Amino acid sequence: MPLRQAIGSYLALARAVRCEPEQVIVVSGAQQAMDLAARLLLEPGDSVWVEDPGYLGAYATLNAAGAKLIPVAVDEDGLDVRQGVARGPRARLVYVTPSHQFPLGMTMSLTRRLELLSWAQKSGAWILEDDYDSEYRYASRPLAAMQGLDHRGRVIYFGTFSKVLFPALRLGYLVVPPDLVEGFLVAKAITDRQSPTIEQAVLAEFISEGHFSRHIRRMRALYLERVETLVESVEKELKGFLDIRRPEAGMHTIGWLQKGSDDRKLVRQAAATGVTALPLSAFYLGAGRKPGLILGYAGYSEKAIREGVRKLAQALLH
What domains lie within the chain, and their CATH numbers? Predict the structure, then answer.
């Protein structure tokens, strides 16, 4: 309970999430959060909207639950709700990353959020809101979560400490509507009984004593320096070949390639020089795949970033 209280207080202040501590369920990272939601809310064959492109981990979890995935395009305002309604009017669930779309990085507009909430309320669908790295926003303060706009209890909100602290921690959280709390608690207990209690106790104090908020502020400043180094280096070494812009949030950005480029082949060429990137085209379910490279920067020093971009240029231009 102390950790659930600390998470609830933090989310209320930082993300405008509305909940009681009893609605917070501690889980073993975001993957378990999605798995529990899929087990409890879906029957085999149920339709689920997913962002296209989107998070492969979510695709895998929903597929494992027997869901029928309906790819819905995203644009500068986020998930195209009208397209979703046209393709899957009877969808049971919507998986969405509104604060920082993965992998493209846009923020879902207020108009789209309200449109999605209105449709979910009328249709009886659930919204699974993945708030995976919203703390790291550089253009402005972190945006309020969609859950705070939900007055009908249709949003299941979740996040993780694995990305903002360290991956091996394996602690995350769900915020579920009151009517679903008992079902999620039972499902969690059946799955693995409980998450590690010592880590929970330490994390509860870390948050309550203000260390977590200070950590976020320090890392936000550090990651901003690193992403600016990445953008400057790419513009210097790969100008005209890779189009990159400073992201508004997150720990990765997209290097856009020219139309018709084979991003998977280029990723293999980069790997041969010791540089790891991900092909954007691999994250699409439907048509209209756009080539690009997903480039992470949070875990590397500025020196390492410059050296990595030089190696990437050698691999891609020679």
Answer: 2-209 (3.40.640.10), 213-317 (3.90.1150.10)
